[in-house]
Amino acid sequence: MKKYFAELVGTFILVLFGCGTVVVAGDKVGILGIAFAFGLSQLGAVYGVGPISGCHINPAVSLGVWTAGRMKTGDMIGYWIGQFIGAILAAGVLAVIAGGVDGGYSIATSGLGQDGWGPGYQGGYGVVSAIVFEFVATLIFVIVILGSTQKAAPSGFAGLAIGITLVVIHIFGVHITGVSVNPARSLGPALFVGGKALAQLWLFLLVPSLGGIAAGLLFRTGALAAE
Q: 205-208: long-range contacts (C-beta < 8 A, 24 or more apart)?
């Protein structure tokens, strides 16, 4: 249970500070600031809860680790539960904080840093662009995670590689989908925003999961495994 709670805490950190930066300071810090907020939150969580659970804080990562043969099915399900609960709690806390601004805050209008695509969202990229980006970005992200945590990798540096990769993914992708690469990160805000965010949630649950599976297979088959 300690591992699952650690995943809850780590996912809470990622969603609160990543999506929180979008909501509270996005217009001030821009894409670079948002990218660093997500990447540095991931980095902090890696060193904070990593010694307990490995700090997946992402159902697609857990799915990739399981596919690679490094995780039991029961643990993966426990990780998913912790991750989704952590993301939902973080979105709820963010909603309370955002609602305290002078003049009020409309979640339905201004959102909670939810992911999306199409007309009226970020750069207006279509569904094909969203699918391709989320699959490729998640594939790369999970490859970095699995590669930097395998036995042959230098010890102690995985967190840096993972955090920096998430920064770069966000610099590239915020204008496309807002960047999910993480079903839990997408679910939390979407539940509170509703409407279009919920209608488009399927993509951010399905496509990153497929990217995680593909990355896991590359290690399970030995294509990218060093040991």
A: 207/130, 207/131, 207/134, 207/135, 207/138, 207/180, 208/58, 208/59, 208/60, 208/134, 208/135, 208/138, 208/180, 208/181, 208/182, 208/183
- pTM value is 0.95
27 dihedral zone (left: phi>0; alpha: psi -120 to 50; beta): alpha
Report the interhelical angle of 2-53 vs 158-177 (nearest 10°). 120
At 227, the amino acid letter reads: E
Euclidean distance between CA atoms 41 and 18, whole angstroms:
7
3-state SS assignment for residue 26 = helix
pLDDT 10s digits, 151-209: 888 878 899 999 999 999 999 999 999 999 999 999 999 999 999 999 999 999 999 99
- Structural domains in the chain, CATH included, are 2-220 (1.20.1080.10)
Q: What sign has the CA pseudo-torsion 87, 93, 99, 101?
A: negative
Distances (CA, A) of 141 to 55, 154, 158, 167: 14, 18, 12, 11
43-74: pLDDT as tens digits? 999 999 999 999 999 999 999 999 999 999 99
Please give the Cα distance from 149 to 219 (Å, whole number): 12
Dump the DSSP string for 148-205. HTSTTSPTT-HHHHHHHHHHHHHHHHHHHHS--S-HHHHHHHHHHH-THHHHTHHHHH
